[in-house]
Amino acid sequence: MSARSANVGASLPRLEAAGKINGAAKYTDDLARPFMLHGAILGSPLPHARIVSYEVRRARALPGVEAVITAQDFPYLPLGAIVKDETILAREKVRYVGEPVAAVAAVDRTVALEALKLIEIEYEELPAVLDFDAALSADAPIIHEQLRDYFKIFDCRFNGNVLSEQLVAEGDVDKAFVGCDVIVEGEFVTQAQAHAYLEPCAALAEVDDRNKITIWSSHQSINRVQANVCEALGISMSQVRVITPRVGGGFGGKMEATVQPIAAALALRTKKPVKVVLSREDDFAMMRSRHPARIWMRTGATRDGVLVAREVKLLYDAGAYCDDSPGVLAFGLYMARGPYRIANYRASGKLVYTNKLRASGFRGFGNPQVTFAGEIQIDEIAEKVGLDPFDFRMRNAIRTGDKWVGGQTVTSSGFAECLKQARSRSDWDRRRASPSGAPNGRPRGMGVAALAHICGVLGTSAIIRLAEDGSIILNTGAVDIGQGADTVLAQICAESLRVDVSRVNVVAPDTDATPYNWGTGASRVTYMGGRAVVGAAAAVKDKIFMHAAAMLECGVQDLELSDGGVVRVKGTDKKVSFFEISLRAHYGLGGPIIGEHAFVYDGEPFDPKRCTMIGFPFSNLGVYMFGVQVVEVEVDEDTGQVVPVAAWLAHDVGRAINPLAVEGQIQGGFVQGLGYALWEELIWDNGRLSNPTMMDYKIPGTLDVPLAIEPIIVEEHEASGPFGAKGVGEPGIIAAAPAVANAVAAATGVRFRQLPLTPERVFRGLIRS
Amino acid sequence: MDSAVLIVNGRQSRVSIDGHETLLEVLRTQLGLTGAKRGCNQGVCGSCTVLINGLAARACLCLAALAVGKEVVTVEGLERDGKLSPVQQAFVEAGAVQCGFCMPGMVVAATALLSENSAPDDEAIRVALAGNLCRCSGYVKVIDAVRRATTLGQSQ
């Protein structure tokens, strides 16, 4: 057994990297079971309609078809994490184009698709509600007539097509604005962005001899899949097992149910394994997007550059169903103050149903929208008071020990350090003062934007066991969707027990085998999962020491771990290995060694005496991460094309457990943010998505992104985190759009307040100015 | 349905091909070679990239019948003597691999580039990989991996 080679702080490649680069890695669509059927889903052709009748007999009669299901085949079993407003197949009404209405299982995909064509559904079309104004108008058609009767986990303050109305307020905003020397005000519009994970949604379900359903699927949480399938089918969690193969990206889109309940329903009906894999077009049309937003914001400061007040009004478009939307809106309200000391703050928001794709969690969770608005206004104010954007941000920066909106203490803020690092590494002062201009004569500009975000929320747990040979079995239930959780949690485990990472067996999340974890979201797996692993490792260490003390005839206080799975009497060469200890535990005394740790995020709750929070679905959130992003762009004034030239991305991650993986998260998040800033937008034409393909919906490729995207890791120790670590999953995407917009303003003198900054939009803006 | 022989990764395999079936379907369902992925099925994302007679091609756009008699190499055929090829090794070491779904196509495309041009500059790398979409990495470490592979290849 070699000594540990690399644990916390080491840039290890992914544990499974070789298997992902030689074709061995299996994703859901790579799996098959004997006599497996193939499922296909029929989507609604209309954005809003009443279902009058179904005719499925011809489809059922097609040779090779084994099941055709519609809502008529189920009792009413609504699901939803926050408001139970949807069913797995549309019932009575359809509410967006693409909404699943019927599903088929057949011997192969060709027959299944043929059967879909034979299903006839008669609709009575209703007027569709496609934007904020239509949804909020006094005579708007109501999308969910039964909203009042739906089960809700909190008082969401609904009304008509307004699914939730929320308010967060501190200080006296109206009075504070009266005293401001400088006020900026504006309206901002952001678009629907598609998650566009490379692996389309997929699930394989099989029923065993006890009628228990096993599901392999592409997901972010085995526990959310299990809960959704059980709700949808009205069965006990003891009847559903969810297993994680490799997952080809999620970004928030695979947090709640995708096609798992439909696959499970088809498997139950046919008693055969059924695989449902969405085509790319169906994935675009049926699944999820980021919330389109309309944001009104006003920010005020004194003439010497001290921020005093901010007021925000948000409209977020939830689409046809609730999903995690109330949380997304709440988080937008919570983050819109930005990483600044602003004593007077009021943010109100409405979440609106429309007849479009449901919006959901998406990397940043409501924060990219408000940070786009907020960071543009920060630049505008800095300009008005005559301060450099960095100096202005530094003057108002939130520091360790300050309170966030709501009263949670910021326990570690690396924000000031991010500002310093981003400024010096980008050579801001020199470049900003004398913009180089491109070799082709086009103007260039530098822009900066800052961000804060949280990592934490909800419950998680870990179980660590010592195998008979002294190696380590790590069970967490934390799904690695590509971000590197398996590797990072293995590193934390290996560091805690001072073994080589190769001695840690990371168990694939499986509801039959791994303990509860709410899921991979909220940048939480390193921080929350890591804390659970540290706790479980401590419990295992205690038991190991009890055995070692008996074997070495000393007290536990005399023992220490040394590298390579060895317990030593301090200051001597008396030692015993994990292997010897485990043999004793398994075959001699005490029983196999198991340690566990389970908790729910335990930070400070919000303080109702300090802050008004109405309709807010959280009681606390997490610890704060910070970042500062600098972007240089080039603008082609003849075409309006904006070309990102270089970027410097300083992020406070607490402690980088794996710097290589941290860099990958920062760079990858930022490039998704460039897509959001410049190219990506789902477009609807009369309620029908016009660009549901990778051809028509443009995500960034190698030719679109700068070669120089420099991640700068700032490590501001977070005492509650595992080895001081915080998260990093989401922050990379959050400040990209405002940094680009601020850079375009620097290059051209024109401010853009609507995303994405397409050539057409920029060209028109330049002409108007 | 016609019986035919495909040459894949240096081996001859008997398959039955429907006229409309793509090479991607036959590789994945009849030969158990699931490395090439179906990301979009319309030739945009590049996740299904394979080599046909040494050139990078979209398996989702190529009819299986048209690949008969040609040398097809998939990601499963890149290893040498049970070890990752230098290009594959470079992807691992550079930290280019995240979710991995695009990686079989990406590394095949990079292999095609390097067999044609042993010392590509950054622009050549970007152009060669322009048809391979990745939603995780931001491409920085992917491009770095190909640069490394160039060095690794030269040192061998």
Explain how this protein is built.
The complex is a heterodimer of chains A (769) and B (156). Chain A has 769 residues and is α+β, with helices and mostly antiparallel strands. In chain A, 28% of the residues lie in helices and 25% in strands. In chain A, the strands form eight sheets. Chain A has a seven-stranded mixed beta sheet with strand order 3-5-1-12-9-10-11. In chain A, strands 8-14-15-16-7-26 form a six-stranded mixed beta sheet. Residues 1-5 of chain A have low confidence and may be disordered. With 156 residues, chain B is of the alpha+beta class. Chain B has two domains: 2-75, Roll (Ubiquitin-like (UB roll)); 86-155, DNA polymerase, domain 1 (Orthogonal Bundle). In chain B, a hairpin with a 2-residue loop joins strand 3 and strand 4 (55-58). Chain B starts with a strand and ends with a helix. At the A-B interface, helix 1 and helix 17 of A face helix 2, helix 3, helix 4 and helix 5 of B.
Number of strands of chain B: 5
How large is the count of helical segments of chain A?
20
Tell me the helix content of chain B.
25-40%
CATH architecture of the largest domain in chain A: 2-Layer Sandwich
Mean model confidence by pLDDT of chain B: 95
Number of structural domains of chain A: 3
CATH architecture designation of the largest domain in chain B = Roll
> Strand share of the residues of chain A?
25-35%
Q: Give start-end ranges of low-pLDDT stretches of chain B.
A: none
